[in-house]
Amino acid sequence: MLHGRLRQGLAALGLALDPESVTRLLDYLALLGKWNRIYNLTAIGEPERMVTHHLLDSLAVLGELERAVPDLRYIADIGSGAGLPGIPLAVARSRWEMSLVEPSHKKASFLRQAVLELGLPNVTVVEQRAERWHPVQRCDAAISRAFSDLADFCRAAGHLVGPSGRLVAMKGVHPYEELSQLPPGWAVERVAPVLVPELDAERHLVIIRMT
Q1: CATH number for the domain formed by residue range(s) 59-210
Q2: How far does CA 13 lie from the centroid of its chain?
Q3: In terms of Cα–Cα distance, which of 4, 24, 21, 17 is closest to 118?
Q4: In this structure, what DSSP letter does residue 56 have?
Q5: Which residues, 6+ apart, have CB-to-CB distance to 139 below 8 Å?
Q6: Its pTM surpasses 0.85
Q7: pLDDT for 58-99, tens place per residue?
Q8: Which among 13, 17, 56, 186 could disulfide-bond with 182, CB atoms 3.0 to 4.6 Å apart, if both were Cys?
Q9: Beta strand 161-171 pairing with 186-193
Q10: Which pLDDT does position 46 carry in this prediction?
């Protein structure tokens, strides 16, 4: 049932993932469900809703993300939490080098176990606040769906991307007020509506660049 639901959602998004990647995504949900019973990693625990609200919600940004950063290779998921959107994106795009940045020891422990059990050599867990992380290789993009405020996101993760890099924020409704409050040196490049299959809610992707 979950396999069919995921396959339908991927088809609606125009994503052709190989069977191994589809299995890996479902294994991730199973692992998340197992840990969630003890560690409360996500408020959504029903497997069917997790397919839509976690997997498809994360993967729905792929097209806009690749258009915003065509040569994307190094990407960081800021405030990764349970690994969203980082793990689904890393499964779908194995050529990307994904850093899951998460300061909570409990959540970082889950992420390390998930990376190990799922066999994700392109994923690294960074147990640290984004503000304190200074990678050797600056990122092509830093993405987050956990930051509630765009200005805070710029201040926390802005140093992680190079001049041609992008900050990418996953939002619900169009964040009109937040867009007017970006700190100096940053500007909105595009706000793109995102359609998530079987999800009756607004989603937007905010792409921010240096000025």
Answers
A1: 3.40.50.150
A2: 16
A3: 24
A4: I
A5: 74, 75, 76, 99, 160, 161, 162, 165
A6: yes
A7: 999 999 999 999 999 999 999 999 999 999 999 999 999 999
A8: 186
A9: unpaired
A10: 87
